[in-house]
Amino acid sequence: MNPELLILIALFTPLIGAIVALLLPTRPRAAAWTAIVASSITLAAGLALVQLSSDGSAHAIHAGNWKAPFGLVLVSDAFSAIMIAVSQLVILASLIFCAFTLPAHFHRRHIYPLILTLSMGTSGAFLTGDLFNLYVWFEVLLLSSFALMAMIRGEKGRAAAWRYVVINLVSSLLFLTAAGLIYGKTGTLNFAELRLRFAEAEASFLIDSSAALLFGAFGIKAALIPLAFWLPRSYPQLPPALSALFAGLLTKVGLYAFFRVFGMVFSNGTTFPHQDVLFIIAIITMVGGVLGAVAQGDMRRILSFHIISQVGYMALALAIFTPLALTAGIFYLGHHIIVKANLFLVTGLVERHVGSSDLGMVRGVARSSPLIALLFAVPALSLAGLPPLSGFFAKFALLNSSLSIHEWTAAAAIVLVGLLTVFSMLKIWRAVFWGEPAKSGPGPLKVLALTSGILSVITIAIGLAAGPLIDLAGQAANGLLNPEAYLDAVLHSQP
Amino acid sequence: MEILISATIGILVAAGIYRLLGGTKVDIIVGLVLISQGANLIILASGGLKHNAPAILTDGTKNTDAMADPLPQALVLTAIVIGFGILAFMLTLLTRSSAK
User: Fold this and answer.
1) Cα distance between the two ends of chain A
2) Contact status of A183 with chain B (Cβ, < 8 Å)
3) What's the confidence (pLDDT) of residue A204?
4) Which residues pair with A60 in a beta bridge?
């Protein structure tokens, strides 16, 4: 199928699905099916795009046939395609969990249209080739996520929603200001055109201040310490089906923006603005996040702090900025989205099974439901980085890249944080899964166990097929460092 | 003109941050609105300020000196609409949380 059509399918199927689901307010089951079908189609389009761009090619659509850099462009290269495919996989799994686990009041409030518009926002953010358009897609997915957050009931839930909304608005304002300043300085917002401008060395000092604003904006969205403390105070309040969606996707969209804008647009192929700051912040984020996780006593909160720590790993990959490190970072992104979402989904299964996810109140799940224990073990061990699961290769590639340029601090942090991750996973395992079962409800629904099981199988498969997948991530990394194909698709193959 | 606009942006953002740190939810909303107006003005000023210049030339000439940059105007329009939507959402959140 031709790539232009696939890009449009990836972008507009969620929108069409949202409109159809919006017309079915009284029939949540039909709306859920609509959402699942729309998300499956988008997933298929994403996989087809991955297959098309796996040779390093890029494909662009010039909206309204306006010539770049004047009109909007949507571009799909290997990195965008990988992100679309992985994110749709997680959205699909989360939709299935939403359909079976959410309390009734969620179903009455247009939850499926909101998830689909969020899905469209992520696809748009991954595909756009324009800074201001990236801002608009961020707003699309943020507004959907605000509305989903606002559905949580109770005093704590409302406080969480309020905090989430305010901090994200601050981030959006930083982004907007930076976009205005960059337009004022360069006269363009097109990624390809900006890359060409910044490749000229004397322009680099121009960008530093605006890049700092964008650093703050993306840093809040990606949850880098010291901008991360909103996350563990808001995500755990969501029901697990939704927190899987938020945890898997939203911070990773921020990281994608970091990789795309700092790694490609502002860089000259060897460095980018504020690289040293990012390096230090990444290490602080890794260590701080995992120490926070070790100190918590609830599965949801431990996993939320782990998001921060893992975001640090990916930011470190960007900060090292060699081809090997970027490859590791992109592989890590893909692996992490699946694993993290799966862990939250399994937390949902544990809560349905025993009624709580507090480490002090739950025990013996391994005996009362071995299936849940198995479903937890695979992503948990993968997150900790044990071979042959996906996390091992992600961490190994990153460690390898930091050793190859003699960054001993980074290497030490990678190993230490990995160890503490194992420790906090063991903490969950020891408290929740070992021991005599106290009280337990029914086992997991077959369809939910199957959904989580498929994500686990994918985690194992990524580990077993690590070679070809690292090659694919390498293509994506090369597309960021040497974006000739990207520039060519945007600027030269004109309509 | 540039100095006036710069000063306005500075005052708006400073006042916005002051209100943002005020503590109550209304303070936060007012603060965010002020800062977003400052951001909008930055975008508008980013294309260069011109007095009485049209954004679209209709007389067939190509004298771009007499023309205002239309792109920042389009961008700021988008930003205003998004900001307005978010303001409405925040006010809803505020009334809902104070009603219950």
Assistant:
1) 19
2) yes
3) 65
4) A75
Q: Which of A358, A348, A329 is nearest to A455 (CA)?
A: A348
Tokens linked to A143: 């507004």
Residue among A331, A317, A306 nearest A417 (CA): A306
Q: What is the DSSP string of A223-252?
A: T-TTS-TTHHHHGGGS-HHHHHHHHHHHHH
Cβ within 8 Å, pair A183-B71: yes
Is the four-CA dihedral B49, B55, B58, B62 of positive or negative sign? positive
Min distance A5 CA to chain B CA atoms (Å)? 27
For residues A325 and A351, is the Cβ–Cβ distance under 8 A? no
Q: What is the tens place of the pLDDT at every residue in A9-39?
A: 999 999 999 999 988 878 888 888 999 999 9
B79 close to A (CB below 8 A): yes
Tokens coding A452? 């989580």
* Residues of A with Cβ-Cβ distance to B93 under 8 angstroms: 150, 158, 161-162, 165
Neighbours of A71 (CB within 10 A): 15
Write the ipTM: 0.92
Q: What is the mean pLDDT of chain B?
A: 86
Query: Is residue A180 less than 8 Å (CB to CB) from chain B?
Result: yes
- Using the beta-carbon criterion (under 8 Å), do A176 and B47 form an inter-chain contact? no
Write the residue in B25, B42, B90 that is nearest to A177 by C-beta.
Answer: B42
Token code pair at residue A350? 């544990």
**Could you give the CA distance from residue A494 to residue A115 in angstroms, rounded to a whole number?**
34
**DSSP letter, residue A110:** T
By the 10 Å C-beta count (0-12 exposed, 13-18 middle, 19+ buried), A26 is classed as exposed
Q: What is the DSSP string of A297-365?
A: -BHHHHHHHHHHHHHHHHHHHHHH-SHHHHHHHHHHHHHHHHHHHHHHHHHHHHHHHHS--BTTT---H
The string of pLDDT tens digits covering residues A226-277 is 888 888 888 888 888 888 999 888 989 999 999 999 988 888 878 888 888 9
Question: What is the length of chain B?
Answer: 100
How far is Cα A250 from Cα A255, in angstroms, rounded to an integer?
9
Distance separating alpha carbons of residues A264 and A314, to the nearest angstrom: 16
**Residues on chain A touching B35 (C-beta within 8 angstroms):** 170, 173
Establish if A176 touches chain B: CB-CB under 8 angstroms.
yes
Interatomic CA distance for residues A254 and A256, integer angstroms: 5
Residue among A139, A158, A177 whose CB faces B39 most closely: A177
Q: Which residues fall within 8 angstroms of residue A141, CB to CB, at 6 or more apart?
A: A117, A118, A120, A121, A122, A124, A125, A250, A253
- C-alpha distance from A180 to closest chain B C-alpha (Å): 4
Give the distance from residue B51's alpha carbon to the nearest chain A alpha carbon, in angstroms: 17
